[in-house]
Design goal:
By secondary structure, the chain is α/β, with parallel strands linked by helices. It has one domain: 3-Layer(aba) Sandwich (Rossmann fold), CATH 3.40.50.10320. Helix content is 45%, strand content 18%. It is built from nine helices and eight strands. The protein has an eight-stranded mixed beta sheet, with helices on both faces. β3, α3 and β4 form a beta-alpha-beta unit. α4 crosses α5. It is globular, with a radius of gyration of 17 Å. The N terminus is likely disordered.
Length: 256
């Protein structure tokens, strides 16, 4: 019973501080008045990150006819309730949900890629697999002369999210495309406070994009993730149901 009470208290504290942090991020962010016509690649560690973090931006771009590619790095096999056994078809379920969600946002199925790296282990790939991932991303980025790349924040408090960002940064540095790199926070917003010495300096170039014209579309896309939204809970989902989306623009990394 005590553990249950402590869990409720932690959940309540996270919910309150998450709302405060989101408000602070929005207050500090510079508004972007319109989205560009530059093609986009969104890189998501898991099936749902793309919709939670930048589903509105995707929908806005697609309304303008701008090409959008979504790349899912992991197979989503870790997306089940802790303490339970994973359904045998969880990978297929999450892939189906991802195709439904990205379809709602306007992304053609041929512009959705599943790389099927092991969920929860993206930060522990051996060197061969890590290089293969970077090479695949580089080839994807090289399909356009100019490109905007969106990936989870480099200090997003989730090992898969941070490892995906590192791989994207290396791929961007190797790409022949003229890339503008943006990061979208996911777990930072839910955890609700600064961990591991996270500072405001980790949010340079903070911008916000109004997704009001496509807000309902994003909410429909979120609902496609039925295997996840019940597990995440309403308080968690509210972090991503705002009419603004938050991004950090980073300078292009130098090639290692």
């Amino acid at each position: 019973m005590l553990n249950q009470i402590l869990g409720w208290l932690r959940h309540g504290m996270n919910t309150c501080t998450s709302a405060l942090l989101t408000a602070q991020l929005l207050k500090r962010a510079e508004p972007v008045l319109s989205v560009s016509q530059v093609p986009v690649v969104v890189v998501a560690p898991h099936e749902d990150d793309e919709t939670f973090g930048c589903g509105g931006l995707i929908a806005l771009k697609r309304q303008l006819g701008v090409p959008v590619t979504v790349v899912f790095v992991s197979d989503g096999g870790g997306g089940y309730q802790e303490g339970t056994t994973a359904p045998p078809d969880i990978v297929a379920v999450r892939e189906k949900e991802a195709l439904e969600a990205t379809g709602v946002l306007g992304v053609p199925v041929e512009h959705v890629q599943f790389l099927h790296y092991p969920d929860t282990r993206l930060g522990k790939l051996d060197e061969v697999d890590r290089r293969r991932l970077v090479s695949t991303l580089t080839e994807c980025f090289n399909q356009h002369a100019q490109l905007e790349v969106y990936v989870t924040h480099q200090r997003d408090l989730h090992p898969d999210h941070e490892a995906t960002c590192r791989a994207v940064m290396e791929a961007v540095s190797r790409s022949s495309s003229q890339v503008r790199l943006f990061e979208y926070p996911i777990w930072i917003r839910w955890m609700g406070k600064f961990h591991r010495n996270l500072q405001w300096s980790d949010f340079p170039g903070l911008i916000k994009v109004s997704i009001a014209p496509v807000h309902a579309t994003k909410l429909r896309a979120i609902q496609a993730y039925t295997s996840q939204i019940g597990m995440l809970g309403r308080a968690h989902l509210r972090c991503y149901e705002q009419v603004w989306e938050i991004f950090v623009e980073r300078p292009r990394p130098h090639q290692p």
